[in-house]
Amino acid sequence: MDTGAGDTGAGDAELEQLIEGIGPRLRRLRRERGLTLEALAATTGISVSTLSRVESGKRRPTLDLLIPLARAHRVALDQLVAAPASGDPRVHLRPLRKERGSVLVPLTQYPGRVQVFKQVLAPRRPELVTHEGYEWLYVLAGRLRLVLGEKDFTLLPGEVAEFDTTEPHWFGPADTNAVEILHLFGPRGDQAVVRAGPSTATAPTGSP
To answer: Could you read off the pLDDT of 13-36 as tens digits, one per residue?
Structure first.
C-alpha cells in the first residue's frame, strides 16, 4: 500500500526551498529601494540584527516578520513568499458585485499604496461622503456625474477627474444608464503624478 511518504517528502523539500528564497528576495527588495538595514528597522520596528539574520537565511521568516516587511516594501505578501506558478499565464480577475447592480473589479493587490479598480456603476441616489485619501477617475464608457462639495460636473469618455477625498464627494451615472470607469485610490498625499511633458507643438489658444 502506498503511504504517501514520498509525496510528503517532496512537499517538505519544496516548502524548504520556498523559505530559503525569502531572505535573498528581501535583501534584493531593500537594496532596490536604497534602504539600509537601519532605515528598514526604523520603519518596521524589527531590530537590525533580526533583519540581517532573516536576509542571510540564519533566521526562519515568520508571519509576524513578513507582514510588516511587506508593508514597508509595499508589495503583496505572496510576492515575498513567491509561491510557485500554476502554469496558467492568464490574469484571473475577481469581480465583486455590489448593491444595486454595480460591479467592482480590483486590478491591484498591493497594500499601502495606490489601488486600481475597474468599476461599472449603476444608477443610484447621490450621497456625499468624506474620508482620508486621494482619488483619480477616468471615464471609459457612459457619462459620469461627479459632485464635489457644491460643484457638479459631468464627465464624458476619455475625461479625467482627481480630488482629495476629505472634500465631500459623490460620483455615479449622470443619467439612467450605467457608467464604466477606471478608479485609482491612494493614501492621502499619494496622488497620481503626470510625468509626460507638454507637446512641442503650439498649444491652441485657451487650452488648460
So the answer is: 777 777 888 888 888 888 877 889
